[in-house]
Write a structure and sequence with these properties.
alpha+beta; 3 strands; three-stranded mixed β-sheet; single chain; 4 helices; globular
């Protein structure tokens, strides 16, 4: 095994877990679309890094962008449960301070990663899950997208990152 070291900042980004089949023209097209969006997110993250954003800010920015795209198993692209619900999880950790935040089983928040970051930075909690936790986060001011944001098929909901203008919100 060859391990390469780098002496400059490095951002690694993947589009999620699971098996993505490439044996159909539609699957190959979706994979190309994912690569284009990931490249766009990385370019924007590099610009933000040059402007002074912290590593944690960049992680949150990249994950929020994926949560806003139907191409990834996050946010509006989330795979539905057998009961037809979107249930999202997210976690974030600051290696320097060993602080962490995590959320699970969220159905209504637009950006679970930002909720996890909020727990890490502004609450005594490390991990919250379920409807009561989600309501508490909404009460704290986290963005709730509206009932139709997560309804319908994956391909039919939301806007992709490429068509988003302005800051993610």
């Amino acid at each position: 095994m060859h391990v390469e070291t780098v002496d400059h900042p490095l951002i690694l980004l993947h589009g999620g877990a699971g098996t993505i089949r490439e044996d159909t023209p539609r699957a190959r097209q979706r994979n190309k679309e994912r690569e284009i969006v990931l490249g766009s997110i990385l370019r924007d993250a590099a610009t933000r890094y040059q402007q002074g954003d912290s590593a944690l800010d960049l992680v949150e920015f990249c994950v929020r962008a994926m949560e806003d795209s139907p191409l990834f198993n996050a946010g509006i692209g989330s795979v539905l449960t057998e009961q037809g619900w979107v249930e999202m999880d997210a976690s974030i950790m600051d290696g320097a301070t060993q602080k962490a935040g995590a959320v699970a089983l969220l159905r209504r928040l637009r950006h679970p990663i930002s909720a996890a970051r909020f727990l890490m930075d502004h609450s005594p909690y490390v991990f919250l899950a379920g409807p009561d936790a989600e309501q508490w986060l909404i009460d704290q001011g986290h963005n709730r997208p509206g009932a139709s944001h997560y309804s319908g098929t994956k391909a039919a909901v939301g806007k992709s990152y490429r068509s988003t203008t302005g800051p993610l919100g």
